[in-house]
Structure formats: structure tokens, C-alpha cells
Design brief:
Distance between the termini: 40 Å
Largest sheet: 7 strands, mixed
Number of helices: 12
Strand content: 15-25%
Order of helices and strands: HEHHEHEHEEHEEHEHHHEEHEEEH
Shape: globular
Low-confidence stretches: none
Strand order of the largest sheet: 2-8-7-6-5-3-4
Mean pLDDT: 95
Structural class: alpha/beta
Number of domains: 2
CATH class of the largest domain: Alpha Beta
Helix content: 25-40%
Length: 333
């Protein structure tokens, strides 16, 4: 059995090791908007009933407009992780799977558990005719690497020529819509795009995402997930928030990113990559910095495969920026 992946957000475990109340920790270990949007009132009937079809349709049309997917109505799913578990059902058994790496570890784990040979590649030019499916996270987590739509389309055509599929994970795509393949998805028959709802809106606990692909692929996902896979409240919020003006969210995230970079640079740390929702730092002192921050009840993301990496998420406000800055100053260099 593949070992579980350690992700960000493990405040309970960190508090058990370093002390303090969970609610007093500052969690910078995830790439989630730290200032959740204001929620509209959810009618009682939405909580009371199984999700009605009109809720699903409203969410799908709102997602189509927000993600600019044209003729494709994105499929609501209970978090994109749910679809990752289904992806091994798509390629023919015996075909190899390519994952542009390093990246989100659950892809390799899901395909490995399903018995596929997984190639972790460093560039899309390393993906060949032997691959029945390839995964590209764009923008990438954790380094923020971005591939142009043109290169991804060319990769799609190479894979399609040999019956293969291209999966593009755009979980962090809301802050850079110009990088998205969604507007071209209707013309790319072997493409599956995954979008996260909770990261951008600051509602990760809602467990909501969307899949964008041709209708027969989406129908298979819907069948595999079963009825009522997404809750009524989640669908209602998607229908409301995806139709809203998100310019204030984008400004807030940009302001928080600028403040984080100022703290990191002032602490003498090197910004090596990232997206507006997180920043990657590369530093040989990373293990000591991580421990110092934990002792100050601040959690960041570390990586077992790259011990000199730390990923910093956004702090909610200036007071928490100052808290992070003070903790970094306390590090014994």
C-alpha cells in the first residue's frame, strides 16, 4: 500500500508536538485565501432537501461563465481529490502514466495504488507515446511553474494520437485566468481540467471542485461518484459566488502576497517561486526555520523530498504578518 501523503493543514498534529491551543496557531501551510468571502444566506430548504436538479444546473452554468468553458458545463464534484481517485479508470491498463514533477503527491499515489507504472518527469517534452495519461498541474504546486496554453495543446494532441489523456490541474488558476485551458476545452477531446472552488474563495472546508471535459467523460465521473455527490449548500454557494464580482478577492490576495514577500525578503529568505496564494522559499536552513516557527505556533509546509524547501501561505492581516516577522527574527542563525 502506498504511504499516505502529508499535506499542509496539520495544525492538530503540530500542536500536539509543539504545544498551544489549535485555535491559537497561525496556519500558513496551505495555499488557501486566508480571508473567506462573505457567505450569502442559504435558504432552509437547501439544507432540508436532497440537492435538487436546479441547484446542480445553476452551479454548472455559473461555473461555465466563471471558468469560461464555452460549450462545456463543468461538473460539480466533492473536492477535486474525489476525481483524482477516479482518474486511474480512464487509461488502458498497462499504459504508463506521466506526472510533471515535483507536484501534488496524490496523483502518483492514486495511479500507483491502481497498479500503473508512474514516470515522474521534469518537462512536458519527456512525455511520450508510451504514456496513456499525463498530469500537469498548472500553475504548479509548490513551485508555481506555468506552461502556456499552446504547449499544453500540443501535448494534448501528442497524447490523443496514441489514445492518451491529458489532465490539467488548475487548482490555483483563479488568480491567473490567462493560463487556463478551459476556454479551449471544447475542442480538446481527451482533456480533463480540474478546478478548485475552496482555495480562491477561502472555503476549503466546503469540499467543492469542478471537472471540465467532454460530455461522455463527465458522464462517467458523475456515474462513478453516484447520486447527490455534492451537497445542496455547496451547490447553492457555487451558484451564487461564481456569479459574483471577484475583483475585490483578487485585490485582497495581491495585497496579502505583497505583504508576505516583504516579510520574507526582510528576513533574508529567497523567494524561489509560487503563486499569489503561496510562496516557495529555498534555504539550506529550512529545517531549523520550520522548527523555530512551530515553537512560535506558526505552521508552514515542508517537503520530505526537498528538505531545503518551505512553502508559506498568506497571513490574514498585518498583525499576523508582524507575528511571522517576529518569529523569523527569533531564528538562531
Amino acid at each position: 500500500m502506498n504511504a499516505p501523503i502529508i499535506h499542509g493543514g496539520g495544525i492538530t498534529a503540530a500542536a500536539a508536538t509543539f504545544g498551544g491551543r489549535v485555535e491559537d496557531w497561525l496556519d500558513l501551510s496551505t495555499g488557501i485565501n486566508p480571508n473567506p468571502v462573505s457567505l450569502p444566506e442559504i435558504p432552509t430548504r437547501v439544507w432540508q432537501r436532497l440537492p435538487d436538479r436546479h441547484l446542480v444546473e445553476t452551479a454548472r452554468y455559473a461555473a461555465r461563465d466563471h471558468y469560461r468553458s464555452g460549450a462545456i458545463l463543468p461538473l460539480p464534484v466533492p473536492g477535486t481529490q474525489s476525481v483524482i481517485q477516479l482518474l486511474p479508470r480512464l487509461p488502458q491498463p498497462g499504459r504508463r502514466v506521466a506526472i510533471l514533477s515535483p507536484t501534488y503527491g496524490e496523483y502518483a499515489r492514486a495511479f500507483g495504488a491502481a497498479g500503473f507504472a508512474v514516470d515522474t518527469v521534469s518537462d512536458i517534452d519527456d512525455i511520450g507515446p508510451e504514456h496513456g495519461l499525463a498530469v500537469v498541474v498548472n500553475p504548479n504546486n509548490p513551485d508555481g511553474r506555468v506552461y502556456t496554453a499552446g504547449r499544453l495543446e500540443a501535448l494534448h494532441e501528442r497524447l490523443k494520437a496514441n489514445g492518451g489523456f491529458l489532465v490539467v490541474d488548475e487548482a490555483f488558476g483563479d488568480t491567473s485566468p490567462e493560463t487556463s485551458l478551459a476556454p479551449r476545452a471544447a475542442a480538446l477531446s481527451n482533456l480533463i481540467i480540474l478546478r478548485s472552488f475552496g482555495k480562491f474563495f477561502g472555503l476549503a472546508g466546503l469540499r467543492l471542485g469542478f471537472a471540465i471535459a467532454r460530455s461522455d467523460i463527465l458522464a462517467r465521473f458523475e456515474d462513478w461518484l453516484g447520486p447527490w455527490a455534492v451537497s445542496g449548500p455547496a451547490l447553492f454557494l457555487a451558484g451564487s459566488l461564481l456569479n459574483s464580482d471577484v475583483s475585490a478577492i483578487l485585490r485582497s490576495i495581491a495585497e496579502r502576497q505583497a505583504a508576505l514577500h516583504a516579510v520574507l525578503v526582510d528576513a533574508g529568505l529567497t523567494v524561489a517561486g509560487g503563486t499569489p496564494l503561496f510562496t516557495l522559499v529555498v534555504d539550506g536552513r529550512a529545517p531549523g526555520i520550520y522548527t523555530t516557527l512551530c515553537r512560535n505556533h506558526i505552521l508552514v509546509r515542508r517537503f520530505d523530498y526537498a528538505p531545503d524547501w518551505l512553502r508559506f501561505g498568506l497571513a490574514p492581516d498585518a498583525a499576523d504578518d508582524a507575528r511571522l516577522a517576529a518569529a523569523l527574527r527569533s531564528f538562531d542563525r
